[in-house]
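Here is this case:
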Amino acid sequence: MKTIIAIIVALVLGTGIGIGVGWLRIFSTPWDGPPPVDLEHVSAIPAGAGPAPVADVDRLEFDFGKLDLEKTGRQEFTVTNRGTAILKLTRGETTCRCTVSDLERSDVSPGESTKIILTWRPTAEPGPYQQSATFLTNDPKRPRFTITITGQVTATLRVRPALVSFGRISAQETSHAEATILSYLDEPLQLGAPRFEQNDIAQYFDAAVTPLENSELNANMSAKSGYRLAVTIKPGLPHGPFKQTITLGTNNSNRKVLAVPLEGSVGSEISVVGPGWDAEHEALYLGPVKSQEGLSCRLLLVVRGPYRKEVRFKLAEPVPVPLKITLGEPTDINNGQLIQTPLLIEIPKGSPQASHLGVQEDGKDVPEESATIHLQTTHPDTPTLRIPVRFAVEK
């Protein structure tokens, strides 16, 4: 009996001690709640927990089949919202600029549809191709989808390059450029005499076609026949940009007439190149310059044409303060086809404050005060050369 009583007393005392220790911990260490949750790894609310859009695309792949280099493929894809909330669509990346995606609507209500239009204009060599366009959605189960187009680029007749560019040429010199006309048909290509569409300047152009050698054909994606088109521009073409089109009749049933566009610009035989030179506005932009630092810039006066070896430069007027100008000695480059003369423009350290940055008025550069370098030249067609300089000297 005494043993039972001892056991009961021990249990009571143990329980009391445990309760006491627990209360002591509660009051000595306040409760701060459950441990923090890692929000980055918490799953999103299940799709069925509330209204959500569902993006259903009628197809994700389309084969254009054979597509000629001169043709454009176009295919529509339909996206239907099968969900219970507005579906939002956004254009994503494409594998190349040749695939253009257009969205009919970016917001699609439940039960409604919208169209995606993909157009594809081949620009590569003949052969198989695969391109894709990706779209982003707010569908929790389908945040993005990709539409893929495939096919085979074919060509019966093509011109390389498609646009013959002469670049900048001289009005006093003869200029040349070439294009290659390739046929991929078994029947040998036949061409008519070249004709120039722009009659007002046709007198300055000549063109001739000569058959390509077999080795040249094999190097052009197994073309079956072809010609070299040589174009010559004679001296005297008026200054400024020009465009001309050569047309040739062919025996190709798909392209009875072949048009080859030409373009270029006839400019002065003296040009300025170098860092800070804006060829479009014909001005040198140096920007803000710290007086204690100063600045130097080296330009090149490049002369081409029949007078290139005789042309010399010298300052025609006093140099605007605080600029310092130094002309170097002319040297020939490109096997004597060009003559370049260095022009060093300096803003010395310690120069006074000045502002020649100019302001914008109706998109035109209007200087606050003149900061133009005037040069005399011995070129018969360009006796003077102006170099506007835009800069500001600050403390």
About this structure: The helical segments are 2-28, 214-218. Residues 2-28 form the longest helix (27 residues).
